[in-house]
Amino acid sequence: GAEGSTLMSYFSKNQIRALKPKITFSTLRDLQCPVLQSNDLQGKPEESCSTEELFEWLGAVLNQVSLDNNSSSFLSTYCCPEPNTVVEKAFLCTITGFIIPEKIIQLLEQLCCYFREPKLAYWLTLTVHGFADSPVSWRESEHGFHKGGENLYNFVIFRNLDYWLQMAVGAHDDCPP
């Protein structure tokens, strides 16, 4: 009743509205990428990289850490895992905001459509990262911030539409079954 209409007038008067997600695009040139085989999660020496190596590499790429193992760098001496290949152009799209699960499913479906056209990519990824200080996590547990506030999952989708699902949460959080 009256309480609801008071709230509505407050919101409209103060122009509080849903924020549109912010979208940024960038092209990464001559990017070293790990070689992956969809049916080999552990990786094989000189054939393919493991899921853990990919996950670490993705973290470096998304945080724009140099992959050239430069000993004079104070930030990182990380280098791309072996075996790897140099990709002339990699496309990175970042969407920041509150995104509902239905939109994430829609994004996944659109990414899968990418393979219908003759493209050079063997695989692509979609990473969904929750806010580090989010109050909720999976299942019925509160999200434990503690040190890093890890709260993310990552799809790796292959040309044959096989996929990997990687999840990372803090030590005190529940993971989905």
Automatic annotation (TrEMBL):
Tell me a Gene Ontology molecular-function term this record carries: ribonuclease MRP activity
What InterPro entries does this protein's entry cite? RNase_P_Rpp40 (IPR013893)
Endpoints of the signal sequence: none
Annotated GO biological processes are: endonucleolytic cleavage in ITS1 to separate SSU-rRNA from 5.8S rRNA and LSU-rRNA from tricistronic rRNA transcript (SSU-rRNA, 5.8S rRNA, LSU-rRNA); tRNA 5'-leader removal
* One cellular component term from this protein's GO annotations in UniProt: multimeric ribonuclease P complex
Protein name, as recorded: RPP40 protein
Report the gene name: Rpp40
